[in-house]
Amino acid sequence: AQRVTQPEKLLSVFKGAPVELKCNYSYSGSPELFWYVQYSRQRLQLLLRHISRESIKGFTADLNKGETSFHLKKPFAQEEDSAMYYCALSGGSNYKLTFGKGTLLTVNP
Amino acid sequence: NAGVMQNPRHLVRRRGQEARLRCSPMKGHSHVYWYRQLPEEGLKFMVYLQKENIIDESGMPKERFSAEFPKEGPSILRIQQVVRGDSAAYFCASSQSEGSGNTIYFGEGSWLTVV
Description:
The complex is a heterodimer of chains A (about 110) and B (about 120). Chain A has about 110 residues and is an all-beta fold.
């Protein structure tokens, strides 16, 4: 069975501080991992996916198969990063995403 | 491109009534997905549709829930005889095609409250 765990429901940091949002997954095969972000009053949007190995808005995430993790990191948080972040897994079927419960990130001035 | 459009954004129904949620995919997208988010939970896959076809409904409750995506018009998620436990946010998403590398775009969600 597929499972995504985001252990932190809430995360609060100060502007300019590093931020790491944790995501652990459980899947027997080779998963595809995603991070989605939902800003206040806006729709859920794709932030990044592990196969792209890209950096979006300063965020990066590395898939660690040994630790079954896909933590989202940014070295210097900005106030506009405040949002709900969801980690998601696709196990072979691109449309059937398994989501974590989300982490609400608040970046304080 | 207006993105995935869902309506209504908020819907209140009494127990036993029917709820209909509509979703218009992004222009050029023929694949539609519905997800449900219960309070304090992550989004959970319900159903995947293409025009006039249900491709995968493995996440749909066996009773009272149905979905369609007709040749013309929006996709509809229908919940009959709603109960309190159906109160949730229902998200629609669409994509141009299915497969690795394809991006799924989400709507803003429809919040159903059953009183």
